[in-house]
Amino acid sequence: MTSYLLRFRWAAILFSALLSLTAAGIATAQEKSRLAVVLERGKLVVATMSTVPPFAMRDEKGELVGFDIDLARLFAKALFNDPNKIEFIVVDASGRWPAVNSGRADFGIGGTTVYPDRAVQVAFTRGYVDSGISILVRKDAKIKSLADLNNEKFTVANFANPQMAERAKKYFPNAKLIVFEGAAAQFLAVRTGRAQALQIDTPTTNYFAAQHKNEFEVLPELLTASQNNAIFLKHGDFTWWHWLDTTVSELRSGSWYPQYNDIYQKWFGMDAPPQKFYLK
What we know:
By secondary structure, the chain is an alpha/beta fold. The protein has two domains: 34-130 and 227-268, D-Maltodextrin-Binding Protein, domain 2, CATH 3.40.190; 133-218, 3-Layer(aba) Sandwich (D-Maltodextrin-Binding Protein, domain 2). The chain is 42% helix and 19% strand. The protein contains ten helices and 15 strands. Strands 11-10-12-9-13 form a five-stranded mixed beta sheet, sandwiched between helices. Helix 3 (67-80) packs antiparallel against helix 10 (257-268). The chain is elongated, with a radius of gyration of 25 Å.
């Protein structure tokens, strides 16, 4: 009798477990991808920042503009054939991951670099733009290389972070440093002559140089290895990630490269890195 009861209890436990797994499987199968949610809603909701020129920033009218803003509008055009079917949610750096993980935004974009520790918190597409760290210099300073910059007569405008301090110590230890909290203040210091150079993300140096061609140029040497900026989204939705990643691929090296190159030229003043080509 005892043996029969034990067998019955184990059978009941097993049956209950199977029911739970079946229910979980049904729930998973019924859960919609974010792609379906977006299509049904009829617009994209995108998290971005507003203080990272030329990726995402406010213009003189207070409107969001930038390379990443224009790029996000291409995603809306791809989904709805209308670049204006999009809503932007402005967040700060600390609010980026919660915006997508909470479901408030469909994805995030805005000068966000991919790092392995960040990929623990959110999923990333492949990079939509290459970055790095470069030096912007005044043309009248006659600085043509990092070796030229390494001179006590020059002053470099830096961000207030340890990485920039380390690079300054490595590449131009003899130059003087002044430290600022933002890119706009760095640029103003160089433009007014308080400094002759600044170090910042390569796309930003390219942007400043393109906007003021007669005043500034970018030194050819990079201070870091190439970095990738990418779209980020909540983990676990392969269908949504796959659509976003496929679209990034088409923009960078496929059928939508001409549109991508137009935006690249607009904000960086140069052609985008060339797309792949066929070998004969």
